[in-house]
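Private note to self, pasted from the team thread so I don't lose it. Backbone tokens:
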């Protein structure tokens, strides 16, 4: 497993009894995860799946919550709550002190990221207010194609055959979705 910092630590999910074997006394001992074991994955992957689940629920809740208000009002309510929750998280886990370590470059990129997040959310909320969440959310997730291209060009991350194939499948899915 490639070292990717803290996110590279494996997290093994005890979903299968095959993870354990008995000793002569009948005690169960955990087995070391086999490389490639589906249920043993990097923590970053586990976090990404959790994020995926919350993002899926978010779209449906947002559409239900903006029946009687403009999308910009719904976005204001959502973002206000997020602001408070992010600050509470930072205080609870004592990350506020890390703000002093931000460089000008870090701050610039984070502010640009915040700006692009604003526009993404603004147009996403307008799209789900006017259209079907099922279609809009899939098109929105097509942003992974933009992310992949930028990761290769800007961050110099390697483009593997598996990433390229996944990206091509996303593009094919988007074409099928919007084809009339």
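Design output:
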């Amino acid at each position: 497993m490639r070292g990717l910092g803290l996110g590279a630590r494996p997290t093994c999910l005890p979903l299968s009894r095959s993870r354990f074997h008995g000793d002569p006394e009948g005690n169960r001992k955990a087995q070391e995860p086999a490389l490639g074991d589906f249920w043993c994955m990097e923590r970053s992957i586990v976090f990404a799946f959790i994020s995926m689940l919350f993002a899926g629920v978010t779209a449906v809740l947002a559409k239900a919550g903006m029946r009687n208000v403009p999308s910009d009002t719904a976005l204001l309510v959502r973002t206000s709550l997020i602001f408070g929750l992010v600050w509470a998280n930072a205080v609870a886990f004592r990350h506020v002190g890390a703000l002093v370590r931000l460089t000008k470059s870090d701050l610039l990129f984070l502010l640009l990221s915040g700006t692009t997040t604003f526009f993404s959310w603004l147009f996403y909320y307008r799209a789900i207010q006017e259209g079907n969440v099922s279609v809009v959310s899939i098109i929105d997730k097509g942003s992974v194609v933009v992310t992949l291209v930028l990761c290769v060009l800007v961050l110099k991350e390697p483009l593997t055959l598996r990433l390229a194939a996944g990206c091509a499948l996303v593009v094919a899915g988007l074409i099928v979705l919007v084809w009339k």
